[in-house]
Amino acid sequence: MQDPIGNLYNWLMGWLVSWGVDQAISNILLSLVGIVILVTIAMVLDVFLVWIERKVVARFQDRLGPNRIGPWGIFQPFADIIKLLIKEDTTPNGADVFVFNLAPILSLASVLLLWAVLPIAEVVFGVDLNVALLYIVAAGAIGTLSVIMAGWSSNNKFALVGAYRMVANMISYEIPMVVILLIPAILTGSMSMLTISQSQEQYWFVLVVPLAALVFLISAIAELGRSPFDLNEGESEIVSGFHIEYSGMKFGLFYAGELLHAFTFGAFISILFFGGYNGPGVTQMPVLGVFYFFIKAMIGYWIIMWVKYTVPRIRIDHMLYFNWKFLVPFSISILVMTAVMHKSLSGYETPVYVGGMLAANLVLGWITIEILRAQARKQRKMDDPNSRVVAELTH
Amino acid sequence: MTALQIIFLLAAAVILISAVMVTATRNMVHAALWLIATLFGVAVIFAVLEAGFLAVVQVVVYIGAIAIMFIFAVMLTRREMLDKGPQMNKRAWLAGILCVVIFASLIYMLSSWVGFNQIPLLVGNADTLTLLGQSLLLPSAYLLPFEVASVLLLAALVGAVYVASNRKQEEK
Amino acid sequence: MIPLSWFLILSAALFSIGLFGVMARKNAVAILLSVELMLNAVNINLVAFWRYGNIVNMAGQVFAIIVFAVAAAEVAVGLALVISVYRRFNTVVADEIDLMKW
Amino acid sequence: MQSWLYILLFMIVAVIIPFAAILIARILGPRKPNPIKQSTYECGMETVGDSWVQFKAQYYVFALIFLVFDVETVFLFPWAISINALPMFAVVEGAVFILILVAGLVFTWRKGMLEWN
Predict the structure, then answer these.
(1) What is the value of ipTM here, to two decimals?
(2) Which domain holds residue B37?
């Protein structure tokens, strides 16, 4: 029971080789089977995410949500899929047909690609890539590309404006995200997701770098283009943004990609900062990690939903200011602090190390809050009409 | 034919065909998208060469940043992008002949070199990522080029921001 | 196993195509795109020589990274210039920008 | 090498699945195009002019800053993972690299290019 997938793999491999199939070819065949199963799990999960999202938003807004088809409306997403499949698939006039059709495919593919490096448990994962952290960023780059392709090829002003906003949003918040991704790399000396999970067996990284976890959550929400950073959609101004001209299944792919992306980022938060598959009893039974992984990822996803349905949308200039004038300098100072503290504390025992890192984080957080408070006071003074009048009179 | 060779040939075909399309397409957005296909092919070549770090950096930097910049620039200069008139110089044929000559002479010169048909050594267990970090940051290795790259990027940022913000001074 | 010659031929071909684009295209953005092709050809060469030489000597990868930085700097400044020129002359055709002709 | 082969296979599967979904939808769904249906969606208004709107130059400036920051942070990854194998001096060197990056941000901030107007 230690490694069921490895055993199954070895058994199938032996079986195939005894049938006279070449070693390399049977390896590729088995990998392919594994990939198809992994992607299928992701897609089935995606179908249920539609239901979960609708149920949760309904509860936030004091409604019931889907409740007609099946118990608690659980079969609602299947009805949605059938509807999407039999809808007409329109292409607007003047659209660039090839690019127009490629964009939703790339959009979903960029999200599915992330699942290749997710360590669901110590023995259940796609591949242990030694540059996995950068691979996440690379998959995100393909997502950005799909947005701009969709916006440009639709031949629609709203779509193009929505795509610009979305891309500005995504590329801006990519910087703090990449900077924060450096921090688990510093702590573990590796870019592999599996190594990062393994090295959190004793303590979760959120204890060592709580500020980094917070910044990662914020930039992940912005990367997803979810509220409060959903000004790319802005239903009231640019009627849903870059995918306005898409209908039927192509729209469904964008939607599915968005939901699965949100869940996957919940999973990343749990892997990078909350121990991933680690939990009580995992060392005896590694398969139990699957359970912990999905619980933690669901909690992460729930927090992202909670923010989405609570916080109102912000303006594009505020969004960019918040990123470039606060989040980027803040994340860079977290990075420098973590690097220096980690290097100078690395010889000490675990309690000293964790305590020192935590203290450094608290000090940095306190300094940041003080600076922000001073700034806000200055701003309020400037904005206050009375003091402005006084200033003009005395001038 | 090993699997590796097949992957190489497919990637090379993608690179060369889309490179030709980059230079031949009239629509500039299409040219930028063809460039992305080329860059992706080059990333596959890096992976074939076991330089995994460079393969992902290729996708992050080139596709995620540089290609996006190109598409933005094309959007900003749209009037010329209506693709009227000839896209090539009058002496394009001369350039074509010159390039073929350069290609042929490069191959001719290289093929007379001893190491031309060299077979690679096995990578073994060398941790190339940590090695890369050490070579970038140890003063005995390539610390200076690394820091100079940073200064270069700073200079590029300052210069580009200065050029892009020139419009304000004109209006005054 | 792939012999080194394959990579060198690919790189030479990509470089020649890029060179053709630089010399033949009129549009300034297209010229910059072609320069990117040439830089990529250089990178293929650097990485191939790293792989086929002594693997512990990281010079090839280091310089590939420097080339990435140079490419980014070139795009940043080049496109800023193209946009600035476009604002002033309303064209991006390299031949028509002839202020310095005389 | 093995792991990159896996990623390549994964890419192929990840592209085929959405492609298959679109293909199935195209087979099952009706196809009755007409000019009104195909027209550009603009809340019922007729489209005025070219849809290729010239966009705000400010987007370009942010893309510029992003490009430089992206390249530099990506180069910090080799530094980050080898930090345990490096002397303290090299860690400080990495910090200097970051500070040069911050100087660029300070410049653009001072220049007022971060303002959205």
Answers:
(1) 0.89
(2) 1-83
